[in-house]
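Render this sequence as a predicted structure.
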Amino acid sequence: MMDRRKVYRLLSTITMLFVILYSVFFVAIKSEHECTGEQCQTCYQIELCVKSLKTMPLVIVIVAGVVVKHILSKDEYPCLYSIEGCTLTSLKIKLLS
């Protein structure tokens, strides 16, 4: 069975791809619509899609930062990423009492 984190990652990836593709296709299809004036809903939706596409690089930078932090923090807890797992001996813990 898939781990919950893997399911969440998969769902968030699918959602991000859907948002990107929907925004790109919506802007491409509706770019030459008949504008009704100042309160045009299609223009408003196009503006929202363009804003979401402009914020994607920021999201990518944040995700890349989290991934780099995760990779660099593996040295702090090496037993969490080993096949054998953690033991008191590998953590160098003395049981004195």
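Summary. Residues 32 and 43 are 10 Å apart (CA to CA). The two ends are 41 Å apart (CA to CA).
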